[in-house]
Amino acid sequence: MQEKGSISIHTENIFPIIKKFLYSDNEIFLRELVSNAVDATQKIKRLASLGQYSGELGDLRVEVAFDADKKTITISDNGIGMTAEEIKKYINQIAFSGATEFMEKFKEAKDANEIIGRFGLGFYSAFMVADKVEIQTLSYQEGAEPAFWVCDGSTEFEIGDGILEERGTEITLFINDESAEFLSQYKLQEILDKYCKFLPVPIKFGTKTESVEDGVDEEGKPKYTSVEVDNIINTTNPIWTKSPSELKDEDYLDFYKQLYPFSEDPLFWIHLNVDYPFNLTGVLYFPKLKNDFEFQKNKIKLFSRQVFITDEVKDIVPEFLMLLHGVIDSPDIPLNVSRSFLQADSNVKRISSYITKKVADKLAELFKADRKAYEEKWTDIGLFVKYGMVSEDKFAEKAKDFVLVTNTEKENFTLNEYKDKVEANQTDKDNQLVYLYTNNPAKQDSFIQSATKKGYDVLVMDSPIDNHFISHLEQKLEKTSLKRVDADVADKLIRKDDAPETVLTEEQSTKVKDIFNKAINKPAYNVQIESLNPDELPVTITMDEFMRRMKDMAAMGGGMSFYGNMPDNYKVIVNGNHKLVNRILQEEDEAVQAQLSKQAFDLALLSQGLLTGADLTEFVKRSVSLI
Fold first, then answer.
1. Its family (predicted)?
2. CB count, 10 Å around CB of 214?
């Protein structure tokens, strides 16, 4: 039988476009051809289970091989095979999907969705790397004759008699010079590991050497010998295809190590398994994040029926969930024909909402089941939860019951618990509840001590997301504001009616202000005389809470660049009731007045980490002279 003809394209001659531009990454040719081979293998398995094929199935597998000298790559299977007529139908008529027709025909059969092929175009990705492609195939159908097909990358093809003697298909690619990199054991193994690691049919790629036990030596110790075995590159039943009841913690941890070999063990995980209103399986892991906020994006891998598609899942997974690791597998996620890009679809939004809900439910379950264990993990997961709350309202609504705040005594509270703790003492004269926080307990220790002397509690808000989380809390919590503990002197952080009376006259206050302005001589520092508790520091330096917060957000890239570019301005609060101020007023020598004022100012700078360089050296020398 000899026949020649032209490939039939349903609309126009798009073959050059398919070859050159349809696929964004030429290495996916191997994914497509191996997936098609798996597809063919799944079909024969399904037909046998339905009683429509009674022959021996044999050892169902797909094999990939290459010959560097002949410049060929061969993908073979012992699946359903094709007749010459089916080659014309499925290969020559571009965009007709054999798998789609098969699923429609057997849609009532269980697990018909295992069939991978959906587009009918995957085969032609072979011409991205090959000058010529040959097919040898033999259909499973009784009495079928082996068939042969060849095409040189034009719209011309040739069909003839084949040479296969057993059921299946063998596709040979004659690699072009530009794609010679693929004629490499390492390169092909790399691609197979990336895309085919979890396909449901064994994929053989050459052989490998293994050591096997071979008796014992004279001392009774095991002897080992090296043997060549098939190199099966994939795990055909990964854990996300199994029921959680079949799995132990070790199974999840082993799979995590398989995905991320050099990572620490995850904190916990969520097994996804839903079949309505969409199909979705997978396992998502909570990694140890700490406070570095390094976005480990591209750590969630998207599969479609166990074929790796991409690790760019931002359209499926909300931004805050990108911090998770793991696998999502769904045949219902719409892809373009190259399987390279997600397409807008209502299923994507529903899947995103489902995953968000599952994550929130898991965290709530952990919190309720073992509060102590949850608190021990909070250092790792707190960043994740806060990030989720500021970015996703639906998550925030659920998370408000299990988000924790931690004070300087390392005590953890839910939001309701913390309100009950501080409400009585930290409500100001305007009936506004004020939460105090520090973002650097060591640096702001003097301010923390001043606050705690007044019976105030101080939260630790030192993660990179906390600037945004603080704003979130102020929006969501009724009549509540948050102030950094060094935003003002302790007496003014939470304004009460019982403010200390001033001991200075108006004339004395003016004089003290002039003395300090002359000693400081820096326009960015605005001197104010305040009536404070005599036990407070003589001088305190603060930045306006709003301005400081905007600058912190600008430093994080929070869209506040206008504030980030503004010069720093500080308030220099001089405690008019402190004994040092009285000493300065009584001192007749202006040089001594200036020296005492500058020393008090530099001490305030030092407490804020603002005293550096030559000013710090001068302060040290002055301190020595005053001893």
1. Belongs to the heat shock protein 90 family.
2. 11
Question: What is the CATH number that goes with domain 506-550+562-626?
Answer: 1.20.120.790
Give the span between the Cα atoms of 284 and 275, in whole angstroms.
17
Residue extent(s) of CATH 3.30.565.10 domains in the chain: 2-204
For residue range 372-390, list pLDDT tens digits in order.
999 999 988 888 899 999 9
128 annotated to a ligand binding site: no
Whether 417 has a binding-site annotation, put simply, is no
CA distance 40 to 135: 14
- The per-residue pLDDT for 139 is 95
Name the class of domain 239-374: alpha beta
Is 517 annotated in a binding site? The answer is no
Which of these, 316, 477, 314, 293, lies nearest to 386 by C-alpha position?
Answer: 293
Strand pairing class (325-329; 300-304):
parallel
The pTM of the full predicted model, rounded to 2 decimals, is 0.74
| Distance of alpha carbon 479 from alpha carbon 459, whole angstroms | 18
- The 3-state DSSP class for residue 274 equals strand
Q: What is the mean pLDDT of residues 73-95?
A: 86
Report the run of H or E that residue 475 belongs to, with start and end.
helix 466-476
Any known ligand binding at 98? yes
CATH architecture, domain defined by 404-493: 3-Layer(aba) Sandwich (3.40)
User: Do the Cβ atoms of 119 and 28 come closer than 8 Å?
Assistant: no
CATH architecture of 2-204: 2-Layer Sandwich (3.30)
Residue 547 marked ligand-binding: no
Please report where in the chains the tokens 């660049």 appear, as a residue: 561
339 annotated as a binding-site residue: yes
